[in-house]
Amino acid sequence: WDSLSRRWRQRKALHAISLLIFDELHLLGGEHGPTLEVVISRMRYIGSERTEQPIRIVGLGASIANAREVGEWMGVSEKSLFNFSPKIRPTPLEIYFQSFDQSNFASRLMAMSKPVYNAVARHGGNKPVMVFVPSRKQAQLTAIDLMTYESQQDSSFLGNIEDQVAFSESCKSIRDGSLQQVVMAGIGFLYEGMRQSDLVTVMDLYEKGCIRALVCPSEVAWKVTVRAYLVVIMGTEYYDG
User: Fold this and answer.
1) SS (H, E, C) the chain
2) pLDDT 10s digits, 39-69
């Protein structure tokens, strides 16, 4: 749509548009955010030029912390802005916070490892769990920590495996040694630049319920489209240089 709308004056089909719906506005902060921002701004300009037939723009999104600011940017009046509270979700949402007083970033992450496992064990309920961490290195370390703590309980994060042979073959196909080790314990982790074959294997095993825990760095948060019963955010700081 970005390419089509660039020469909107020469494209008669665009002149007939009266309603435009933008879904997933929360992706404004993601990889395709700049493109989405340009398209919305351009369509607002086109609508302002068409005084005889203005364009009605509808935006939909989830988990937008600054919904009011986004609405003002899109030209939405206060009476036309609908921001729904988490309390009206069809599935109830419970939120828990735990603070840490370590001033050093690395020390704080180390102090979080055991509480993260305790949170997963307490609230996970043998259902899919996702843990978001600040970096690729921390994703691997957290996956290993979860595996270690769970093995001390003589258990694992393995889910319902209907075909043990197929699961074993999938594990053997993983090229990353550390990833293969934790997947066999029911835990996967993702990161930018990982082998596509490893990514497909981990996501497939998680969606099938073979592995119940998935650890992701914040940089891939917008790319992961799978569901989880429990989500743990391990630290909100990251290096942006």
Assistant:
1) CCCCCCCCCCCHHHHCCCEEEECCHHHHHCCCHHHHHHHHHHHHHHHHHCCCCCCEEEECCCCCCCHHHHHHHCCCCHHHCCCCCHHHCCCCCCCCCCCCCCCCHHHHHHHHHHHHHHHHHHHCCCCCEEEEECCHHHHHHHHHHHHHHHHCCCCCCECCCCCHHHHHHHHHHCCCHHHHHHHCCCEEECCCCCCHHHHHHHHHHHHHCCECEEEEEHHHCCCCCCCCCEEEECCCCCCCC
2) 888 888 888 887 677 888 898 887 777 888 8
